[in-house]
Structure formats: C-alpha cells, structure tokens
C-alpha cells in the first residue's frame, strides 16, 4: 500500500498486457516533479489461504506448489518519457526482499522480541532498494516477476539540482512508548519532502554524541519506530532525504 500511495499525478497508458497473465497488474504515472513511476504486481488468486481453522500453515502445500508456477517475465518498452538523461531506481517486495514475516520465521517465530529482534525485522519492513539512480541504459525494462511480488521502477531526471543536499524535513512529532518489560521506544514523524517519490533516513544523537543512522533501509513512509538503547538519556533526531 505504501508503494501504491505514491502512484499520484498523471496516469500514463500501458498497452499490450498479456491476458493469460491476468494476475499481473501494471500502473504507470507521471508525478508533478517529472518523475515517472511504474508499479508491477503479481498477485495470483489462491482462494482461502488456510486449510482449516486449526491449521498452523498460512498456505497449503498444494497452494504453494501452484503459486510457484505463477511467475511471469516482463518486457516493457518505454517511449515519450520526456526526461533528459534519466536515472532509474528499483524497489522490490517478494519472498526474498522486504519480507518481515519470513524473517520472523527464520528467527524461530518469537512471541515477543528484544531490541535485536526488532532491528532484524525492521531491516525487512521497507521495500528493498535494489537499484539507486543508475543511468537508464535501455528504454526496455525486462525482468522476471515472481509470484506474490511487487516491483516499482522510478525514472527521474539526472538534473544536478537533484544531487544537492535538501533541507532536512521538519520533525512533527515524537511519541514515546514503553513495552511490557519496560523497554523504551519512540515513534518519530516528519513532514513530506517535495512532490515526488523520495525516501528518508533517520539519524539519532545520544547524550550529545555524534549522529548515527538508525534506519537500516531507506524509509518511504513519514515515520519510524525507534527502539531506544537502555543507557540513552537525551536523544536528538534529524531526517535525511534520499533521492530516488
């Protein structure tokens, strides 16, 4: 939903989608700042995902076997982009990328977690950035799309102004929380930067020390939950804009 929420601006036509892959969807839009965003989703309909009320399996073996056959190979030609010297960023969500449920299973399915557990899960809570502002060498995007996967391509101008360091977004709220075992956390919110698609990193300074980045991956949303170290008393935050 985070990626879909960024599909704003002018809707662009996409032609030639193969009907035999009716579970593959594609949306394209031109944002107000000139970026072009293309969102692909492969969402096969498997029917009910549980074999019974008492089942511990979120998907049956037969459904999993069927799912593994429902990938697709995508080839999309780009035309009339209207972007000089375009650069490409890619965001991905699938079983291998941005899959906190899979990471939780790898950790042994803990019922409650400490700061290290949350840090491990947080690294998979955001779409994975697999390409970052790489020169668009071809006007054809060709790639495999696994089943139950989402990929977004963001095509941006390589304008020198994009490389300048923008003013840090204003932090609008810091909401403290305490866990069941007394552990401290804070949810930090900030203002959106500009009208295009960007990501953010959050930095923190503990007790007057140097700022250190606390987001394991670039964040697309406008907030982040931070697990505060036990020995930290006074904390200052700042937000960094990551151009896409």
Can you offer a commentary on this structure?
The chain starts with a helix and ends with a strand. The protein folds into two domains: 2-158, Sandwich (Immunoglobulin-like); 165-243, Immunoglobulins (Immunoglobulin-like, Sandwich), CATH 2.60.40. It is mainly beta and 244 residues long. Helices cover 11% and strands 38% of the residues. A hairpin with a 5-residue loop joins strand 9 (171-178) and strand 10.
What are the main properties of this structure?
244 residues, mainly beta, Immunoglobulin-like, 2 domains, 6-stranded antiparallel beta sheet, 4 helices, flat
Q: Topology, pairings included?
A:
Blueprint: H1 2-5, E1 10-11, E2 24-30, E3 36-42, H2 61-67, E4 72-77, E5 86-93, H3 100-106, H4 115-122, E6 128-135, E7 140-145, E8 149-157, E9 171-178, E10 184-190, E11 198-206, E12 212-213, E13 223-227, E14 235-243
Antiparallel strand pairs: 1-2, 2-3, 3-8, 4-7, 5-6, 5-8, 9-10, 10-13, 11-12, 11-14
The outline comes out as flat
Tally of individual helices: 4
How many domains is the backbone divided into? 2
What structural class do helix, strand and pairing data support?
mainly beta
Largest sheet: 6 strands, antiparallel
Helix/strand order, N-terminal first: HEEEHEEHHEEEEEEEEE
Helix content: 10-25%
Q: Describe the strand arrangement of the main beta sheet, using strand numbers.
A: 1-2-3-8-5-6
